[in-house]
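Box 3.1 A note on notation
Throughout this textbook, protein chains are presented in two layers. The first layer is the amino acid sequence; the second is a token string describing backbone geometry. Keep the layers aligned when reading.
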Amino acid sequence: MKKLLILSILALAASPALAQNHEYAPLAERTVNYKNWTLPNLTTDQPEDLRKLMAGKKLVMIVYFAPWCGNWKYEAPIAAKLYEKYKSQGFQVIGVSEYASRDDVRKYFGADGPPYPVVTESESREDKQKTAHYEYRQLTGDKRNWGSPWNIFLEPDKINASGDVLVEKAWVVNGELIEDEVDKFIASKIGAGATSAAVNGAL
């Protein structure tokens, strides 16, 4: 009887409905033709312009996520940790919520709210193929169904001075961040002790 109970517990733990697999992906430079946007801030409901959010920063990580996504729940503490570690040195994280209502996103972050700016691009799963998020994933080779999380890194001093397209090529992660790799990448870009040559060699 005891053996049967243990086997039942193991079977439940292995169930796809209950167990969430990681979807780690490496940093890769891809053609993305990333455009500027103006989207509503989750906390204030005021429009946020990406160019303005990037002003004065050395490196910006924009992470697209769905609050109900298990892989995003794995990455969220990593994104917050990296932001806390490097924000005083010119690193900015910006969240873009997808495929869930703004109320659901607020509930996800709780009473304290998100640790970094979060804006909303879509609020319904039916909008998946209508979002810029979906288009960027197609361009960069992301074959996942929902693409949460999806990360792109922008260097404000290298973006186009005018026009809708901010940058033609950028470093992206088509999945969950590999923390050590991204930590070194951030440090190299903001001059926090790691050399670009060492990081590029590791990539």
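The CA atoms of residues 41 and 119 lie 4 Å apart. DSSP finds seven helices and eight strands in the chain.
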